[in-house]
Structure prediction request, 613 residues.
Amino acid sequence: MFLPTTKEEIEGLGWKGLDIILVTGDSYIDSPYVGVAVIGKILLDSGYKVGVIGQPETSSDVDIRRLGEPRLFWGVTGGCIDSMVANRTATGRRRNRDDYTPGGVNNRRPDRAAIAYTNLIKRYYKKDTRPIVLGGIEASLRRTAHYDFWTDTIRRSILFDTKADYLLYGMAERSAVELAGCIKDGKDPRSVRGLCYISKDIPDGCLELPSFQESAQDKDAFTRSFHTVYNNNDPATAVALAQRQDTRYLIQNPPAPYLSQKELDRVYGLGYERDAHPYHRKDGEVKVLETIRFSISSHRGCYGECSFCAIAVHEGRRVRSRSKASILAEAKEMTRHPLFKGRINDVGGPSANMYGTGCERMEKQGCCPKKSCISPQVCPRLNFGHAEQLSLLKALRGVDGVQKVVVASGLRHDLVLADKNEGERYLKELVLHHVSGQMKIAPEHSEASVLRQMGKPNCDQNALIKFKELFYKFTKEAGLSQFLTYYLMAAHPGCGEDDMARLRSFALKELGRLPEQVQVFTPTPSTYSTLSYWTGCDPFTGKPCFVEKSARGREAQKSILTGPCIKKEKKEAFDPKRLLKNSKFVQALKSSHCNNKDAMGTQPDARRRGSDE
Ligand code: SF4
Ligand code: SF4
Prediction:
């Protein structure tokens, strides 16, 4: 069932009102890929009456009064993507499209949506309304003092900026149910794990971070604060944190324990419509459904720890996988959907080939704070084979009514190569059964110094070339016509124009093409790369690093890679030094960004962002 979004639906359900109203910057899409739907369904399953208001009008009360006032609390989220990232390009221009809005026009989601919606509720329900609880990625990644690219400043915790009552961070199913229970029973919710709140004092046992004011003025203090927040993100080891914002403190309770496999299976088995609510559907197609409607999320978390990715902070570093039975049950349910045509568009997670992997230490004691699981080498204690995923994919291929199962989530090609037992068999199976024309991988760069800064030192040129050779060997053996596409990044901290020229040379010489999927690095809140961008230093060594900050320079880096290919480049073994010396050619490449539509504001790939590899 859809959660109600009109008064008529509430009456139709025989309900007298709602316990909880969730307000979101997306249209209401009932899918296990959409946080509002998942939180709404788990609360419903726990006995609460929940309604949803998607993309409310902020200049009047027409939407926010639509369902009345909730008995327990308001839940507010900017949506599946931070609203500033959803609305603005890396150069600050407003995006034209929004894949979560009916009809696709970006005209419904306000900038800083969590602030706009909290103000909206307070404006029309006055101060004594029920508590307002922030959630979702925007709130989660802005929960402490953070760098905001769009104002080029350190901002306070979003809880202070919105003046909401509580904030739930991370994957908040458990915390949301506990919070609802506390409010319903009249208990103080301030001990709920995964919750942030505002306090006049610091409770016993809290670790105090450098204050917001200190973080804003002193980059070393901000760096210390960032490391402490990052290192207190594992439920097994984290302690409560406190950060002074003005005269009061933000208190961050330790994160909620991860859902067990049984609990995760329950979340995904709650029955989703896999569609936009008719209230929104009448205004046009919601494009993101093309991708997520018939996709399956097999696991959460990623121990890849790429510096530009917020998955470790939001979802956690430990991989938690669903049971095979639960995933197969979801696939069977999909086959009964009236729009299902036999194709599952994706089975994966933040990084597809981490399904069913992990290590005993991370399960029992939490992830090692001072050691990475796969970088620069795969940790010997990591159980990372591909056997589990191979078995899952085979079983999915056998489900009645399923004709094709695609693995579209990115995968860590270095892990495929590192798996000496099953790695090649895994890639062969993907090539034979699970690629739909093209397989996407995200090497991001070719240059060792840039890759190191990105936290990907083991994804070097040799690994990429070897993976490419294997892919095309298996493709040829199978008599298929399919190809690899590469996600690459420009203007990451530590990357200069000469690095981009060398990447261009590598792409032409070794990959045989200039890439189409090039992203200009966006300093989104709460990543190590963003910390580098702000401080101009490597956050681990403290050494200064080059950071391209001008919008023109950032676009120019992209254009060096994507600029039109000249005949000479194709014919000769390409020397990047000569390219840089050829100022006429470089200028031509740089200025080509003026004609580059993608740089001018097309929609971000939601799947790549956040869950990208
Ligand atoms: S023991 Fe190795 S695999 Fe396990 S958490 Fe530590 S670094 Fe990661
Ligand atoms: S970019 Fe991919 S591999 Fe890297 S941390 Fe994020 S999800 Fe993991």
